[in-house]
Amino acid sequence: MKNNNCTMIMALSVLALAMFTGEVMAAAKFTVLPSEVLLNGNFAQAQLVVTATKSGEIRIDSADLTHTAKYTSLNVDVVTVDQTGLLLAVANGTAEIQIRVGRSKRIVSVIVADITESPELDFHYSVQPVLSKAGCNMGACHASQHGKGGFVLSVFGYDPSKDFSSIVKDQLQRRVDYIRPENSLFVLKPTAQVPHGGGQRLKVGSVMHDTLVQWVSGGAQGPTKDSAVVVDLVATPSRRVAEIGSTQQLQIRATYSDGTTRDVTALARYDSLDDGLLKVSTAGLVETLGRGQAGVMVRFEGQATTFMVTIPYGADVDLPQWSEDNLVDKFAVDKFRELGIQPSLLCDDSTFIRRAYLDAIGGLPTPAETQQFLDLNGADKRTKLIDQLLGLTGDPAQDVFNDRFAAYWTLKWSDLLRNSSATLGEQGMWSLHNWIRESFRVNRGFDEFVKDLIQARGSLYMNGPANYYQINKNSSDLTEATTQLFMGIRLECAKCHHHPFESYSQADYYGMAAFFSRVGTKNSEEFGLFGRERVVVVNPTGDVQHPRTRETMKPTVLHGDVIEHSLDRRIPLASWLTSTQNPWFAKSVVNRYVRYLMGRGLVEPVDDMRSTNPASNEAMLSALAASFEESGYDLKQLIRVIMTSRTYQLGSEPTEMNVSAGKYYAFYHAKRMPAEALLDAINTATGTATKFKDLPPGTLAIELPDTNYPNYFLKTFGKPLRVSVCECERAPDENLAQALHTLNGDTIAKKISDPLSHLGKLLTAEAPVEEVIAHIFMATLSRMATPDEQALCKQIVAEAPTMKEGCEDVLWALINSKQFVYIQ
Amino acid sequence: MAAEYQTDHYCDGVNRRSFLQIGALGGLGLSLSSYLKSTAATTDKSPTNCILIWTRGGTSHHDTLDPKPDAPTSIRGEYDVIDTAIPGVKFTEICPNLAKHADKFSVLRGWNPRNGSHGTADQYVMSGRKFNQAVAYPTYGSVLSHYHGFRTAMPPFIQLGTNVDRRFGGGSAGILGLEHMPFEIDADPNAAKFTVRDITPPSGVSFARIDRRQSALARLDALQRNTDVQQPAFAALDEHYKAAFNMITAPETKQAFDLEKEDAKLREAYGKNRFGQSCLLSRRLIEAGVRFVTVTDGGWDTHANNFKGLKTRIPPVDKALPQLLMDLADRGMLDTTLVCWFTDFGRTPKINSASGRDHWSTAGFAVMAGAGIPAGTILGATDAEGGYVSKDEYFTDDIAATVYSKLGLPTDLIAHAPDGRPVRLIEGRPIKEWM
What we know:
The complex is a heterodimer of chains A (824) and B (435).
Chain A: H1 2-27, E1 30-33, E2 36-40, E3 45-47, E4 49-52, E5 70-73, E6 79-81, E7 86-89, E8 93-101, E9 104-113, H2 123-133, H3 160-168, H4 170-173, H5 185-188, H6 207-217, E10 230-236, E11 239-241, E12 247-249, E13 251-256, E14 261-263, E15 269-272, E16 278-280, E17 285-288, E18 292-300, E19 303-311, H7 327-339, H8 349-361, H9 367-375, H10 381-390, H11 396-399, H12 403-417, H13 421-441, H14 446-455, E20 458-459, H15 468-471, H16 475-487, H17 493-496, H18 506-513, E21 519-523, E22 534-538, H19 570-577, H20 585-598, H21 618-630, H22 635-643, E23 671-672, H23 675-686, H24 712-716, H25 736-744, H26 746-753, H27 758-764, H28 769-781, H29 787-799, H30 803-815, H31 818-821, E24 822-823
Parallel strand pairs in A: 2-9, 11-19
Antiparallel strand pairs in A: 1-4, 3-7, 5-8, 6-7, 8-9, 10-13, 12-17, 13-14, 15-18, 16-17, 18-19, 20-22, 21-22, 23-24
Helix pairs in contact in A: 2-6, 7-21, 8-10, 10-22, 12-13, 14-19, 16-18, 20-21, 20-22, 25-26, 28-29, 28-30, 29-30
Chain B: H1 16-25, H2 27-39, E1 49-55, H3 73-76, E2 81-83, E3 90-92, H4 96-100, E4 106-112, H5 120-125, H6 140-148, E5 157-160, E6 183-185, H7 207-224, H8 232-249, H9 251-257, H10 264-270, H11 274-287, E7 292-297, H12 306-330, E8 337-343, E9 346-347, E10 359-360, E11 364-369, E12 377-379, E13 381-382, E14 389-391, E15 394-395, H13 396-406, E16 414-416, E17 422-424
Parallel strand pairs in B: 1-7, 1-8, 4-12, 4-15, 5-6, 5-7
Antiparallel strand pairs in B: 2-3, 4-11, 8-11, 9-10, 13-14, 16-17
């Protein structure tokens, strides 16, 4: 079945190409890149890319002809070429390749040099890429903890000398055969000439196979310390605009630290970053499958790059109501135009007020607040509401008392900073909580917030941010938490091996860790009143070592300079981290807030920003980051910019046309309420309350300072235990236990049937059924019932044995409806 | 055009790109697809289920199934030994029923726990992986739920009681995500009014009312859904609601929890206490389509008054475990039900000044039965003081591999952490004598 599908798709694409190229061939205008090829050394390969040209130039939407062109080597004893345009060096000399499209021809000249009779191949240069390309050193295969079948390699080949000894020395040298190199076990296995658990990874006679054999013939040279390493990777082309069903052959060039370059198209690894849009072959042939923008991640020897392709949705879009005054809108519109996306319509006022309340302050509006807003007139009423929620009206009477904003965002950052009495004790937890809450109350600049954390010292109980050093106890934890939280970078991979999708190495990791090598905690004598008190201190000495090279690492910012400080290394780190010198800080914060408000980050996952995970709208990300920097890292202003945009205020109903364009914000992403907000919302809607242990009555769930409360609802709905800095700890997905609990659990059952609830009081007062239904809609969904809904609900009540049961069932149904549990 | 499209696979056959996609979609992609997969009525390749008895705290091996009658009193302890159904094998006198039915299960005396801390023990013994801060390894039941999904309306993984130390992620789904957590039942099945949270309707709600509510919800939803195109997240909610209603109203659910339906004599035979009735309930749950049931029991951390304590702790297990095996055999379920009894670790050979035994990390016992485990065998041995394994040593990793193999899970199974990293779940080798 799978094969059939595959064949069909291939057949279709060939057909599409044939139709398309028919037109081009008449004109037969095309360019071949590169125009000259230099092939250095045995097994050197190079990829030609043939592109149709219009008026002599290659444009972003030019068609790729690489796989339709015909290739002939005019000197097969020097170089050979296959029908995908891949050249292979044979012997030293010069040669010509003829490329034919239709009746037109082009010639590419080739020079082959440095081929020797029996070369001694370099392990780094020749063997490692083969092991990587064939997948031998993947984490799940020979690079797993104990390897496979006793054969252990380092993950992605980060430790070549270990890999070398695994191949050549381990197991009494049974893996290499110097007499008959082609019979070496490590060659027989991946070619499946003997049974291999990982299946066939190489073909006998392939260039990769011959490389391994020749390496053994040449004496199986080990890695040398001064081997050149790859420092840059370039994909040609790097961007394209295409139609569904088109193909593009990539050509990849690597630059080495000694300045040489090499075509590594055949050795690089390719991954589609969106399976719905693109697929890519092991040879680097990309095929487009769906509409939108997506990339191919290309990796080779610790470096990575991306090829981006745009497949527009439609040609023309109609955006009369959009202005470019707002940054978000400006770049959203650019993207809509670029991709031909028609966004959904603006949401209505009741949807908006509910959404704005839940997003900005984590709670529902009361029926009175809703009614007041709906009754207002004026084009700026939404902006006014946003200012009210954020405390930006300028009127002290309104702004000062807006504490729910601080509570809600304190919850968010308490999760990320992992504030918990389990690690900090009650006092430490309150100390950190109060500091965070105060910061959001006064809207401190986010740069100051981060600086305070990074530079914190002294008593855990008296200085809230000092607890950062109790939560993250060693230089590794601190490095990983700091880079993930404030740079959106997941550096932990580079602790043990080179980052698989980025250029970050162990040196980068331990260079950052060196900033934290001199900070520690010790038991306090002075502040020991409450017991278990500790203080954060800076030691005069302390360094980290590179685990492999044993080199003492200097404090070095990621991809940047060494910054030393005689008193406290954290001081320059904090300054750099929160400065515009740090290219990641503003972007990572902005990206998080876009996700919190618009349901999806420009980069997803939000804390995994890297060159191989491009933003869905780079320009918007950069512009928002720049504006955030200019505002002095003012979070309220950032939230205001996003919320006042038309993009944010779109309806949550996708259309047939734009349903797959969610990542460009063509509609508002409905998102499930977080556990705490949901519990508060149920309480607000029913007019009941939840009492939490050791906290005064009336405390909202979003105000909880700690993690672990004996509350089944919060636990089931995934209130995080704050053990991870990953945003993913708060699972966004529904699960069965949650569905069971809201549908059939006692939490909602009790609140619904409580005689003192809103509904209970209305029933006691014998209010007419219409009034009760109207109230239920206003309280739960912040809107009036439509006539149809009113009729249906009256019918539901009529079908029930009593009015009480019927009304309770209506309330129950609305609380369980998507319009309630989702922020729409 | 002979383009060879990416056919790279991980060693387990999982497409390499699927993890990137999961990374990109966050939890949703994973949970939805696996849920849909699990609910689809596909052929069930794993007929074997599991009942795991977890005695939290560390049950003493000296005073139960691995006594040392010839050791000095300071090690031997207060109990005498008795003969068992296996010639030459002795248990202590507090396990008379287990001794009598020793031909119905197998005891591993060669277990080396390699861990002496609570919490990490729950994590290690119930996942087969030593605690690792960076990776939350999933417990067996969660893996089964992840790999095989639902069999009927019943959740695939249920835990009875809450005697699992979760501080280090013990008995939890870990990287597999919340949806594969055990469905926990905290209520006492021995109680006169045994109800199950969220499954038994709350008071005042009849099944007729549930039907009315379900219809009200469906009608409102239909009315409020104004377009055919809806947000992708909503499809998942619909599926979960469907499964939840199915579970609440399905006859097998009502049946499974209704212990009153059970023969009074049989209930008595299991022991009219929480542990005994939990064992009985676990059998009913397996019958109703649950794949994995953990029966948890606490109070085994006998640092003080070891001998007095065990005299009350052991009898319910002594009574219920053999009864469970006989009951399963009578119903023809034993071949497809793996029954395990695991605990944190062993306890010290030397009795301490509080007449107790402390944590011991190099010896202990494990019991398995059913699913082709050779009954009536003793595997491995400890030295004269019960301190170290002297014959056929096996580690927790190997026990895990045995459980995986018996349950139809590949021992080289790979799952993906939320950050996309591929994680091999276990590394041990199945215990060959038990395969």
